[in-house]
Each structure stands twice: as C-alpha cells, then as structure tokens.
Amino acid sequence: MSQCVGTRLAFVFTFLFQSLTFLVPAQQEVTWEQLQEVEFESEYNQETLEMLWYAEFGEGVKQLEGKTISITGYVIPFRKDENLYALSAYPFAACFFCGNAGPESVIELKFQTADREFNMDDYLTIQGVLRLNADDPYKLNYVLEHAKVEE
After folding, report:
1. pLDDT tens-digit map of 87-137
2. Which of 79, 87, 106, 111 has the greatest number of C-beta atoms within 10 Å?
3. What count of other Cβ atoms lies within 10 Å of the Cβ of residue 40?
4. Tens digits of per-residue pLDDT, 10-32?
5. DSSP 3-state assignment of 117?
6. Quick one: DSSP state of residue 17?
7. pTM for the model
C-alpha cells in the first residue's frame, strides 16, 4: 500500500513541477546578428532640434519584444552613480559611441537592483526583458529591463 502512495506522490510532484515551469517565462538566447535586422531613417526631431535616426525593426526583432532574453557583450558605463550602463557587441574603443558600429550594436541596461558596479568592457551575459524603442530620442533602440547578470 505504501508503495502505491509513494508512486502517486511522485506523480503529483512531477505534474506540479511541470505545470509550474509554464509560469516561468522562457529565456531566449539572442545574438548581436539577430539585432541587426533593423533599418534607420534620418529625420529632424523638433524636441531636440537635430537630425536623429529612427528605427524600423524587422519582423524577427519585433518577435523578441517583451521576451526574456540573454545576450553576451561588453559593459559600457555611462554614469555608475546613477546605475546607467549599456551592453555593446564591441569593446568601448570600437563601440557605437567611439568606433564605427551602428546603434543596433548597443542595448540600454535597466538593472533590477543597483547592488553591483561594473567596469568598462566587463564581458558578461545579461538577461532581461527586451523592449524596442523607435521613438524616444533619450533612450537607445534596444532596452533590457529587469536586467541581471547571468552567473
């Protein structure tokens, strides 16, 4: 009789565990090549009074909107005291801000907590929810919300 109860308990726990895995958002590993599926048009912005590039994301990139992803790159600190960082496909000397890369090669990082400081060109895998930005000139085109370092 106890063997039957044990088998039933094992079945119940297995069923519950498998059911709960559907509640956890699946993480998708993304490459920088996938994020290159974007085109940019230059338009005058009345608010900033300058020409800016506006993104038109491809279908593959649009499907990543709101998904939990992970991506590996180089950390670029903007303002450490404000927990403001970006992740780049390239080290700082060759990134979008200082080198010849395009805006599709950087992601704005919005960390869950400000309990860690990062150094220039730390090479890390970061996980978070991807948001696409085509309109706000004060944000990068890719924003990773709820970001955290994969250990």
Report:
1. 999 998 887 766 678 899 999 999 988 888 899 999 999 999 999 999 898
2. 87
3. 15
4. 444 444 444 444 444 567 999 99
5. coil
6. H
7. 0.78
Q: Indicate the residue type of 25.
A: P
Q: ∠ CA 125-130-131 to the nearest 5 degrees?
A: 145
Q: Report yes or no: 110 and 142 within 8 Å, Cβ to Cβ.
A: no
Q: Which tokens in the block code for residue 9?
A: 């308990």
Q: What is the chain's alpha carbon radius of gyration, rounded to the nearest angstrom?
A: 20
Both tokens assigned to 133: 């930005």
- What confidence tens digit (pLDDT) does each residue in 54-92 have? 999 999 999 999 999 999 999 999 888 888 899 999 998
Question: What's 31's DSSP letter?
Answer: -
Location of structure tokens 């499907």? 63
Strand, helix or coil for residue 15: helix
